[in-house]
Amino acid sequence: MTAGVTALPTGLVARTAGLIVGAVVFVWAGMMLGPSPALFGFGYLAAVWGAAAVIDLQTHHLPDILTLGAYPVFLILMLPSAAIEANWNGLGLAALLGLATALALFIIAFINPAGFGLGDVKLGLSTGAALGWLGVMEAVAGLLAAFVLMAVFGAVALAVKRLGRKSDVAFGPFMIAGVLVAPWLAQLMS
Asked: What are the TM regions of this chain, as residue ranges (predicted)?
């Protein structure tokens, strides 16, 4: 949420959690894409998102080195897949929907800067691009799912008194979770 944070989580639990998130994202990508050169791009995002989720949960900050760099690197890594699979439309949608997701999140952050950070906006570049590769409905479903998952978590945490009404909740992990459920949610929406 704040630019320039460089502190990384320490300890075995933090590293293990990051690896688990990354592994889950990579397995998800394999299920969605099958054997495809696109797995290079999604594998890169799995590593980035695993680290980002842990850092955001621990510090409520998403470092620029993870969020800003992920979007162009992902698109570059998707070039071979676009060429080999003749999926230039997928690459174009990935680029466009990454920007559209970040713009939507920026508008929300502008309206409510106390409740939403620019790190989330920058993470939206790569989450929107990844889902854009899969399709427009997936990108819409992923963003919607992130907000629904966070709302459900917030309601449950309030009910069991784990959070107060003014507590901060890291949104990045919910964005990543939204990516994971987006393909199935998109099928339900269509």
From this structure: 12-31, 38-59, 65-84, 91-111, 131-157, 169-186
User: How far is the C-alpha of 35 from the C-alpha of 152, rounded, in Å?
Assistant: 34
pTM, rounded to two decimals? 0.85
| Band (11; pLDDT cuts 50, 70, 90) | low
Look at residues 73, 81, 22, 77 and name the one whose alpha carbon lies nearest to residue 51. 22
- What is the four-CA torsion angle of 90, 94, 97, 98, rounded to 10 degrees? 180
Please report how the helices 64-84 and 118-134 are oriented relative to each other, as an axis angle in degrees rounded to 10: 10
Q: How many CB atoms lie within 10 A of CB 37?
A: 17
Q: Which residue is it, tokens 């949608």?
A: 93
CA-CA-CA-CA dihedral for 42, 45, 50, 53, to nearest 10: -130
pLDDT in tens, 106-138: 999 999 887 788 999 999 999 999 999 999 999
